Amino acid sequence: MGTLVLDIETASPFEEPPEGSNDTEYFELFAFGLAYVDNLDNHPETEVLFRQGGWDDGFTTQLFERLLDWCNQRDIDRLLTYNGAWFDAKHLLNWADELDATTDTELYERTAALFENHIDVALAAADEYADELWDDQPILPDWKAYDLAEIDNNGVWYDDYQFPDSYLDDVDGKAMQGKHIGQVIGER
Length: 188
What we know:
The protein is of the alpha/beta class and 188 residues long. The chain is 33% helix and 17% strand. It is built from six helices and five strands; from the N terminus they run E-E-E-H-E-H-H-E-H-H-H. The chain has a five-stranded mixed beta sheet with strand order 3-2-1-4-5, sandwiched between helices. Helix 2 (88-102) runs antiparallel to helix 3 (107-114). The N and C termini lie far apart (39 Å).
């Protein structure tokens, strides 16, 4: 069974979203983190697809096309995300719909097809570890779920990549964090 794991990273180059907001208008697609296995006993094939230009719709369309081309080269039976029902799927489908309305693409249909057999692992973790949730917390942070499930999730360090020094001037710490994409790196 072919399993795709997908995570998106976004930036907010035009306006910082209000606290707790999940409105697509505040976010721009920056990158896809992908992993694929055809058998869960195998080591996953991984890829990161970065945006290759500014914030114009054409660059968003190109990034979508690169994702869909990558996926078309694999036999995908299911898609896993962590909190993808609330974030990844919502924004990807909104962006695809907006792009289809202004260009001659079929991004919405093709993206929706990826999510036909979608499993949001965050929902399963929230069920499994419900006693760990705070009163107002619908899901666990991924690091907490990994810790509780005793999954070794090694950190990713900026020193492992060749970012220009100026990209990291306002980054707090040496470990990569999703918030850095939206607050610092995406803008640069």
